[in-house]
Structure formats: C-alpha cells, structure tokens
Write a structure and sequence with these properties.
With about 425 residues, the chain is mostly beta strands. It is built from 1 helix and 28 strands. About 0% of the residues lie in helices and about 45% in strands. The relative contact order is 0.15.
Length: about 425
C-alpha cells in the first residue's frame, strides 16, 4: 500500500503553518550539542475499577523512560492509587499532571472524578494533590486551558462539559461551570459508512468526547459523539463560565460520531475525526468568530477495505505536512499528506501490529509515534520518516494493561 510522496506536494508556505517557537529543553540541548535530557512517558488506561463494561487490566499510571535511539520504553514506576485513568495531560510547565477517572461512582450524583498530581520533573515521580468531581458521569477527555487557570473536562455518559479552576499549587477546585448538551436523536450508523461496517456508536443521548481550545485559546471546542455536533464557546477567564460563540454548534453527518480533533499550526484549518464512519472532516476555522466551514471529508481507510472499523485518534506532525489517524477495529494507522490548502490525501494504511489501537502520541523529538493498544495490553512504537511521513514499526512491544492515553515530558537534568 505504500507509495512514494512528492516533495513538491509538501512545499508549504511558512505563513500557513505558523512561525517558529522557542526551543524546547530537548531541542535546546541538541542545539548546544550537550547531553540530551531524559524523555519520560506516562501511560494510563482502564483498571479493574471502571465504568460498567469498561474495566481493564491496568494498574494505574505507569512511568517509562524512552530510549532516544530506538524508542524503546523502560519501566520506571507505576502510581496505583487511581481508578481507570483513561485520559491524562500535563500542565505546560510540566509541574502538574491531571488524570480523569472514567467512573460513575465518585459521589452520590454518579459522577466521575479528576485527580491533580505534582510531578518531580527530574524523574517523573507523582504525588497526589487532590481529587474532585468531574461534573458528570464517565469523563472521557480533559485539557488545560492555555491560560493555565482552568481544566476543561468532557463527561461522556454525563452529557456534560465542566470547567475546573486550577489553583496556584496545582490543586483543582469545584467546577465553576457545568454545561449539559441537548439535541435531537441521531442514528447509530452514518449513511456514508465504509462498506460492511457493522460497528455502531452510542447515539442514545449527548456524549461529549473531547474538549480543547483552538491554538489561540480564544475558543473552546467540544466534539459531541452522541449528538453529532461540534460546540463552540468562549471562556470568561474571570468567572470560569462558558459563553456560546456567535454560532454555538455545527451539525456533522448524522450518525458519524465526531470524536477527536486537531488544528493545523496556523489555527485556521480544523481536522475533525468522526468515529463511526471513519472520516476526517476538514474545515476552515475563523479564529476571530469561531466559525467552521467544511471543505472536505476523507476516509481513514483505503478504498479496498471492507468490514467494521471505528476511528479513534488524530495527530498532526510537527512539520504540519502529515496527519495520522488510528483505526481501532481495523488495527491500522492511516497516513495523510497535507495539501497547500489544508486538504488531505490518504497515502498509506499501516498495520498496527496489535489489537484495538486507540490513543497515539509523538515523543517530544517527533521521531517516534506511539500507539496504545487497549485489547493487546501493549504500547507499540513507530519511527517516522520526516520526509515521507511513513511510520516504520520498531518490532517492540511494551507491556501495559489496557492502555488508552499518553503524556510525554522532557525531564530536568
């Protein structure tokens, strides 16, 4: 399935993909030709205490050290005092880690929870600070607002999104806002499914699956996989309240289940991954108004694919030249090239070498792409060719029970 990619296709204008940013600690050390700092990887997933039907084999949050030459992960420690940390994220200064617990019994209201940890930036050791309600049942995603003042949470089964204040010591406060989505019932399957796709997505009610800002931080976007909508808000930094944008939501293909999204580096092109029909919807994004205008919908599986597949994660390369998608039931990694106008071309579909690949993430150097394979109880690594975008399997499996999420950190010396 592989094919060579034209370099001419990837001659991108710098204005379209953002200006250069300050050097990361890793790149600063490379520029000075000094010893490279350690790269630490945090992995979370499902433990035996999870939502109904969501229990897994994980033990908590595992910490690994990555070999910069091979991408191999060596175990360092596991923090076990947390149930089903199925999504984690680091603060921008790397001093704090936030982990949701994908449960529905944290309190009498049947909510999930979010735990704040302090991080030893030299060795990745975690110390629990506090735990609060996520504002709804079975949270699926969280992100730190660029201001550093708030943590944004999407509660999948609760049908809600919540704003949690972050205090100076990294601890979390009670939600300043909880918004419940509502809308008409959607079909279980999309009309433009891949042929032979018998998989369904839950459209019984609102199911927010991802919450994050656009690159400027001006707008908060939410993918609701149950209502097939993308919601757009502004966040009042003084009150922690969400304010609907000029157009508060955008309807996607009925039954498509928008799951995760990523922006290009200019912040003007939005790539939205739909789970049920395994499509990437490419849209223009107006950073002034939050308006979304669709320009393309492209399949994450090749034309000869037949059968069930549910798309899971979407990433954009540091160069902005490639987009990657994981197909869970198809056990494949889709590789797209990015055109001058931001549209995508499916160039390759690579075998994951494992079962039910979900979350993916690049290491801080951008040399390796890692995939969390929930049903294979493993993490796999691919070396990525920066010129062609092709991922090459490293023939290495890291044993982790039911992994679903990553966070990488460049350690202090």
């Amino acid at each position: 399935m592989s094919q060579s990619l034209s370099r001419r296709r990837f001659t991108l204008a710098l204005a379209g993909f953002g200006a250069a940013t300050a050097l990361s600690p890793l790149r600063a050390a490379q520029a000075q030709k000094g010893p490279l700092p350690r790269i630490l990887c945090f992995v979370g997933g499902y433990t035996e205490h999870g939502p109904p039907g969501g229990a897994g084999n994980g033990k908590g949050i595992s910490v690994f050290e990555m070999d910069r030459d091979t991408g191999f992960l060596t175990p360092v420690a596991t923090f076990m005092d947390i149930p089903s940390p199925s999504f984690i994220t680091l603060s921008r200064n790397r001093k704090f880690l936030y982990a949701l617990s994908e449960i529905n019994d944290y309190d009498k209201a049947g909510s999930g929870s979010v735990t704040a940890f302090s991080v030893d930036t030299r060795n990745g050791t975690l110390a629990k600070i506090n735990t609060v309600s996520s504002g709804g049942a079975v949270p699926a995603h969280l992100s730190v607002h660029p201001s550093g003042k708030y943590l944004l949470v999407a509660n999948y089964m609760g049908g809600s999104v919540a704003v949690l204040p972050i205090h100076a010591d990294g601890s979390l406060g009670k939600a300043t806002d909880v918004v419940h989505n509502s809308g008409p019932k959607q079909p279980e399957r999309a009309a433009d499914n891949p042929e032979g796709n018998f998989a369904v997505s839950d459209h019984s009610s609102a199911h927010p699956h991802m919450i994050a800002t656009d690159p400027s931080g001006a707008f908060v976007l939410v993918d609701d996989a149950g209502l097939d909508r993308v919601y757009v808000w502004k966040l009042d930094l003084a009150t922690g309240k969400l304010i609907p944008a000029q157009k508060p939501f955008y309807d996607m293909e009925p039954g498509s289940a928008p799951r995760h999204f990523v922006f290009d580096h200019s912040g003007r092109v939005l790539y939205n991954l739909c789970e049920q029909n395994s499509k990437v919807v490419v849209s223009k994004f107006d950073p002034q108004t939050g308006a979304i205008t669709q320009i393309q919908s492209v399949s994450t599986v090749t034309s000869h694919f037949r059968g069930s597949t549910l798309a899971a994660e979407i990433l954009i390369a540091e160069s902005g030249r490639f987009v990657y998608v994981s197909n869970r039931l198809g056990d494949s990694l889709a590789v797209f090239s990015v055109g001058m106008d931001g549209t995508l071309t499916l160039e390759d579909e690579v075998w994951m070498h494992a079962d039910y690949g979900r979350a993916m993430m690049f290491d801080p150097s951008g040399s390796f792409l890692f995939c969390a394979n929930q049903r294979s109880d493993s993490v796999t690594a691919f070396r990525v060719d920066r010129e062609t975008g092709k991922p090459v399997f490293m023939n290495h499996f890291t044993a982790v029970g039911s992994p679903t999420t990553f966070a990488f950190m460049v350690a202090d010396s």
